[in-house]
Amino acid sequence: MARTVLVTGGNRGIGLAIARAFAERGDRVAITHRGAAVPEYLYGVRCDVTDSAAVDAAFAEVEHELGTVEVLVANAGITDSTLLTRMTEDRFTRVLDTNLTGAWRCARRAVGPMVRGRNGRMIFISSVVGLYGSAGLTNYAASKAGLIGLARSIAREVGSRRVTANVVAPGFVTTDMTSNLPQQYGAAYRDAIPLGRFAEPTEVAGVVEWLAGPAAGYITGAVIPVDGGLGMGH
Domain Ketoreductase spans what residues (predicted)? Predict the structure, then answer.
């Protein structure tokens, strides 16, 4: 049965691969963006997740056009990397406001209809960095680690209403960002990964799609790494 799926930040990279996977299985898929082009098989809605009013408006538009959101994939995120001694408070809080508080805003807006319908899946896209840590990424790592506490708290709050909340933690993924890494850094990162390669966006999308499907109906509060073994034990 087709569902309404909303993927935040779904216009490129991992988000686009996730949105495409749901669309290919026949779901009604909306993506949020901030002015970028949207593939014709997806429903695009402009939204800044740091703005509660914009989040409310985006959900209202999707509900009107496609129906109540039954699957939320909180993927929208930014990076702004520098060493702790050089990081300003604004650079730190801006990343948290997008990556963590933005996901919370979307979850808060999605949860009411899910609880009333006694059906819903929330999937938060974290990162191996949130578990493993990384120099120069205190803001990003903190935001991604925070998603775990957010998802597990939601899982405990609304599990009795048949709403699940889970986390997917990708490692290095072949995207525009990683393709621009200097060759020596890319090689060093690959050497640290037991599987010896970066993931493809479709490999992350497959795990997200599975978590939203019937086979994962009894899974909630979980953190599933898709990192080639980089963060094992964390």
Answer: 3-176
Q: Taking residues 123-151, what's their average pLDDT?
A: 95
Question: Which positions ≥6 away from 173 have C-beta within 8 Å?
Answer: 13, 14, 198, 199, 200, 201, 203, 204
DSSP character at residue 194 = T
| Chain position carrying tokens 């020596």 | 184
Domain residues for 132?
4-173+201-225
Number of domains, the chain: 1
> Is 41 tagged catalytic?
no
If you write DSSP's letter for every residue of 92-129 in order, what string do you get?
Answer: HHHHHIIIIIHHHHHHHHHHHHHHHHT-EEEEEE--TH
**Global pTM?**
0.95
Encode burial over 156-195: b for 16+ CB neighbours within 10 A, e otherwise: eebeeeebbbbbbbbbbbbbeeeeeeeeeeeeeeeeebee
Q: pLDDT band for 87, please (50, 70, 90 cuts).
A: very high
- Give the chain's length: 234
**Residue 148, in any domain of the structure:** yes
Catalytic residue among 43, 140, 185, 189: 140
* CA–CA gap between residue 221 and residue 149 (Å, rounded): 9
- Residue 37 placed within a domain: yes
pLDDT, one tens digit per residue, over 161-206 is 999 999 999 999 987 666 655 565 567 778 899 999 999 999 999 9
CATH number of the domain to which 144 belongs: 3.40.50.720
Q: Map residue 158 onto helix, strand or coil.
A: helix
